[in-house]
What does this fold into?
Amino acid sequence: MITKRNFLKAGALAAAFSLSATAVFADALADITAAGKIRVAVPQDFPPFGSVGADMKPQGYDIDMANLIGEKLGVEVELVPVTSANRIPYLQTNKVDIVISSMGKNAERDAVIDFSDAYAPFYNGVFAPSDVEISEAGDLSGKVVGVTRGSIEDLELTEIAPEDATLKRYEDNNGTISAFLSGQVEAIATGNVVAAAIIERNPPKRPEMKFLVKNSPCYIGFNEGEPELMAKLNEIIAAAKADGELNAISQQWLGLDLPAEL
Amino acid sequence: MNYQFNFEWIGTYWPVFLAGIWMTIKLIAVGGVVGIAVGTFCAWARSLGPKWLGIIVAVYVELIRNTPFLIQLFFIFFGLPALGLRLTEVQAAMLAMVINLGAYSAEIIRAGIEATPKGQFEAGASLAMSPIQTFRHIVLVPALQKIWPALASQVVIVMLGSAVVSQIAVEDLTFAANFTQSRTFRAFEAYFVSTAIYLGLAILLRFILIQVGHSIFATKRRASR
It folds into this structure.
């Protein structure tokens, strides 16, 4: 039964909805500020972007970036470890506010989430020991190549690899690296920074760059329809590029200055 | 909840799922049959075999039953190549499942053997049967009959546990779900479909095992009348 009071309430609600139709969708930036905390999805198996240090604390380019964002927003940072495969579902199911997880941009991802400006350089390529002769995608014919499932290099290589090349798709980067080092695959497709990190540890097999798969700088990912959040993140990234803070992070983790075109 | 289900991707990705189902079936067919054979041998060795063999089997059973399946799988796939034994991911997955089911089923079958009345062994001996003949014809079948439901459950558990073999890039049903999810971002739908398929496979597998049990034990029941 509709009482007069309920009827008025319903009317007021309807009016409120129609007036604020554009602001009905929760503003993520306002939510973050109100909570005093930003939940950031970061990698934990992807040095130098994100790994667990000797003190069992997460460290890396992405973790420094997350802390920089938190500092500039004036909120606490909660780091949520994710894998390449689950970082977008974490965002979609609102387990995190933003994803800083060395994530590249492509059409499929762009259809479901939004991206900030680029905050880190990243190149993907195919790597193998020096005695394996590969110089272009066609040379992968008959070879077994390891790749992390759902990563950008997986998507790209699936397109360009010849029919008789075998792609072995592992759950995470540790699996891909282990498969390469234990000789289960002849070559791997991964980021140059990952290969550099493997070489730094002097493994029995040295992954050397064979050919470039894709130049794909890293972007911060967040849910669609958040113009306020996007503007704020881009403002922070631009300021950090201008005052050298981002360059310092790049120097520390990649050993390189930020490329000019980033 | 205002989640919009979208199953359009099935039109593109069903061959991936079909291949995944077939791989999971192959894994459990090999893992189940060979695993139970290993388990039967180990149960015999531990309850009736020579003492030194019983000790080796006991170490194997305890080692496998007290370590995670995933670690056993990684050990075989990533660890053994360092010792010069390189298996493909499918061989490694099958071996891990055989070793795992072998250890668990050994204990289940041993329980059945130990529940067999001593008189049955004596009956075998009085018919001038060798200990091996007695085991095969008089002890094993009634023992299996007692523990068949528990054994069937263990096989189903191993089939469901085989989901982790996608970690070493075996393209099983879980791989199909993860692969589809990583391409379409329809995580809920991909796992919804794979959950339903696993449920169907588990029910089917249990049904088959019950039928197999009926066919083994029915003749024995008639014969014992």
